[in-house]
Amino acid sequence: MIRRAKIEDKSILEEIHGGEPPWENFEVYLKAIRDSGGDIFLYGDKGEIELLPFNGKAHIHVLWVQEGYRGKGIGSKLLAFAEKWAKKRGLKGLSVIPEDGNAMRFYMKNGFGFKEWQVKVIKDVEGCDVKVESHYDNPPKFPNVSAVYTSGLFLWNLHKKAPRVRFRDFTILLIDEGSCVNAVIYGERLNRRIVKVAECLAGKIGKKLFLQVWMKDWKILEEEGFKKSVKLSGWRRFSLEPLF
Asked: Which Gene3D superfamilies does UniProt cross-reference here (predicted)?
């Protein structure tokens, strides 16, 4: 009943999402997910789940059941499938960032528990002289997204015209969010050098730099003068994680 999605399933996914799927170019979106070790699966034409290996767990990037079929156990079946998918890959559990109270209750009903996950930080920056080249093509392949992960923005924006900057083993995606620049960083663990490059890029645009980082990387940013963000919906985020 649950199968791997294909390019030809675009219309089915659009129907599942009521005509508002989280992408503009499905082919690019699907490629980006698979390049990062994840995949998309369909429950007939009624639901879908998008899974990504992240920080030793299978991260549920999207779990969606078509309106009219909710409350019939489809979401729970997709979660059971996600557990099997994670185990086959040697991952140690599932993680998800619920988008609202209904989603929160659903995951808790299915055995998930709270765990502190991220800290939001922001910093005023100035322009600098570091020379960088932006590019808009060839989404990077990455085995693990590093310290910065913004509830799916790193995938949702791959098809948009947000500049990406290559820097050795890192790629930075810049998303202008009006009052600040959200820098999404692909690569290994966060380090001071890549933080400096992100600061420089924000400075060139003339806006504050906004990051979300793993708790264990908070010390690096604290030493660089970043402050916990209160104005941007608080500074703590929670994920829900069950252990196998």
From this structure: 3.40.630.30
Q: How far apart are CA 213 and CA 149, in angstroms?
A: 7
242 lies in some domain: no
Report d(CA 148, CA 154) in Å as an integer.
9
Residues 221 and 154 in one domain: yes
Cα(126)–Cα(205) distance, integer angstroms:
9
* 8 Å CB contact between 237 and 150: no
Task: State the pairing for strand pair 113-123/134-135.
Answer: unpaired
Whole-angstrom distance, CA of residue 184 vs CA of residue 205: 15
Q: Which residue has the tokens 């919906």?
A: 233
Domain that holds residue 48: 2-95
> How much is the pTM?
0.70
67-71, 146-150, 159-163, 225-229: least confident range: 146-150
Together in a domain, 185 and 88: no
Contact 162, 150 (CB under 8 A): no
Which of 95, 129, 164 terminates a domain? The answer is 95
> How many other β-carbons are positioned within 10 Å of the β-carbon of residue 189?
12
Q: Please give the average per-residue pLDDT across 118-130, as a whole number.
A: 76
- How many domains does one find in the chain? 2
Summarised one tens digit per residue, pLDDT across range 152-174 is: 445 555 545 666 677 666 777 77
Measured CA to CA, the distance from residue 52 to residue 37 in angstroms comes to 6
